[in-house]
Here is the input.
Amino acid sequence: MEAEPRPGSPRRIGLFGGSFDPVHAGHLHVARAAGERFGLDRIVFVPAAQSPFKPDQRPAAGEHRLAMLRLALAGEPEWSASAIELDRGGPSWTIDTVRALPKAIGEREDCALYLVLGSDNLPALPQWKESRALLERVQPIVIFRDGDASAQLEPLRAMLGDALAKKVEAGYLRLPPVAVSSTEVRAALARGEREVAGVPSSVLDYIRAHRLYGARA
Ligand code: ATP
Here is the structure.
C-alpha cells in the first residue's frame, strides 16, 4: 500500500462495506489484498445500518460493530471505520454512501473511489439503487474466493452496457480462501467455544465483555 499521496493525482480511497457482525480475518485479508493490488492510499470500512437485501437480518448494534472494527483496524494507519451508514440509518444504499463519503472523511470530491465487494454481489448489482451512477463513480474491486463460480457478466452487460461491464471485469481480484465467516464466528461463540479462530483477540475480548452473540464473559 502506498502511504504517501501522489502529488497532483487524486488519492485512491477504498470503500469496504459489509455487516462486519463481527469483523474477522477474512475481511482484513480482503482489504490488504485490494489495497496492494490497486495501490489504495486509504481504506474505509463502512458497517451497514441495514442491508437493503437482508431486511430481516438483525445484526448486533451498530455501536458494537463499529467499536469492534476500530479495535481490529488499530495499528493500520491507512485503514479506518466510518459511521456514515449507521448515522444515516435505514437501508444502506451504497450510492448514498459514495456521494457523502469524501466530505465525511476529509477527502477531495474528485478522489478516486474503489468499491470492494464480494463476487456474490454481482448478480444483484443491477438492482442496487442507481447502479449505473454508482458504477460510473467507482471502480469496483470484485473479490473472488477460490471455488466461487466465475461471474456471470452477461446479465450485467445486458442491463448496464458493455463499458460498465468491462469496468467491473477490470476489478476482478482472485484470492485464496480464508475459511472464516461472521456466521461461523457467531455460531462458535453461541456454542460457548473459548477459542475462535480468525477473530483478533482484542475483538474477542470486546465480544465477551459485552456478551455479544451469546458469548460468556
Ligand atoms: P455473514 O457470515 O454474516 O454473511 P460475512 O463475513 O460473509 O458475514 P460481511 O461482513 O457482510 O459478511 O462481509 C463483507 C464482505 O466481505 C462481503 O462482500 C464478503 O464477500 C467478504 N468476505 C467475508 N468473509 C470473507 C472471507 N473469509 N474471504 C473473503 N471475503 C470475505
Q: What stands out?
A: The chain is about 40% helix and 15% strand. The chain has one domain: 12-179.
